[in-house]
Structures are given as structure tokens and as C-alpha cells.
Amino acid sequence: MRRQIVCLALWLVLLYGTAYAAEIAASLELIDVANQQQIKGVIASVTIAKDGQVVSQFRKYLASNIMEFKVKEGIYLVSMEIDDLETEGKDYYLSEKIDLTQDASAKVYLYSAGSISGTVTDQLDNLISNAELKFECAADYGDQRPEKTDKYGSFSVQYAPVGKCKITAYKNNMVGSETIELKRGQKVEVKIDLKQKTASASLLPYIVVVVVIAMILAFVFFRKNKPRVIREDDKTKRYNNMDEKEKVLSTKCIY
Fold it and tell me: Is the pLDDT of residue 186 over 50?
């Protein structure tokens, strides 16, 4: 009995020891991709995922540009959202795969970001909920852009790429757009007025007129070129008329 207990204890120690030994102390050095400067004195929100499953998620203040955490060896999708509290908006964004199998340390280059908030209104300055939104920005990185305004007619993007960004809103065949220039750490507020008709709405009356005219012309054409159906009564009358004409001609010839 004692032997079995000892074997079980050794097996448990080996099992947990192996699991613990598989963890490594990963170290990531944060660099600004634009100017190669160290990123420090910021708050980092980090999500580490593998095979579509979140392995670790944490938020911490970084006094230096080195971020350390424990994780098992492997290749991970690391997402970072960096906020410098001295700026009004958000500051950096990263989402990329990092190999932590061969080396537990790596340099990561983060992209500059800013924040956008806005509203969509109609010509009477009423807020428009569920208006469709389209973002055309200088780059594709950052958090997910909203597809529609919320029930208050508002929208926001916490981590948007820096540079020019055109935002277009649609609702009930009306459209409006605004173009902004976003810098790192900046928070831009934008108001989009739906004051123009969409192309399909403005062309609709002309399309209807063209369709009606085409239908009328088609009706006249087919009516004019419709093959005539000769009924039996018409054939009989025609033959009788021909016989009478022949009789008249023969009588004239006799006289």
C-alpha cells in the first residue's frame, strides 16, 4: 500500500513538474514602428491567443519598454492596445503572430493609433440610429470598425490608424461623409450630416421614365407588326367578291 502511494506521489510530482517546466518567461520589447523609439510609461491591454482560443489576457502599466509574462512555449497571436495617459486618445496597436518556441524574447513593432468618435444627423439635425457606416482609412490595422450607428446615432473607434480617414454614412437613400486627418494619441470628433441623395435615389425618376417609354414603344411596335389572322368568314367573302369581279369583267368583254 505504501509503495502504491509513493508511486502515485512521484507521478503527480512528475506531471505538475513537466507542466510547470513547459512555461517560459516571455519578454517583449516594444518599439514604435514609425520612429524606432521605445514605448514606455504606458498602459498595455494584452490578449494572447492560440488556435482561436484565448490563453491569457491582462492589463498592466509598463514603466519600461519591456513587457514580461509567463506562457507555455508555442506560436501565439498577440494583440496589444497601448494607451498613454498623457494623450487624449489611444496611442498604439499591434496584432501579430509571435514565435515563442525557440526564443522567449522578441522585439515587437507597434503601429501608431488615434481615436474617433462621431454622430450622424439628418437635415433637421436629428440623430440617426442604425445608419450604415463605411470607413476608408489609410491603413487596415486597429480595432473593429462599427458597421452602424447605435440607438443614439453615435459611433466610435478606440484604436484607428493614423492618417486620412473618410467616413461615410447612409440611411433612407440619404448619404453624407467627412474626411479627417488623425495623429497618434489624438481624439477626433466628427459630425456627419445626411444631406445628399444617394446615386440610386437621384436617378430613380429618370429610370422610371425610360422604362415607361420603352414599354410604350415596344407595345406600339408589336401591335403594328402583329400577323393578321384571316378567319373563314373573311376567306368566303373574299372568294365571293372575286367571283363577282370575274362575272363583271366577262360581261364587259362580251359587249
Answer: yes
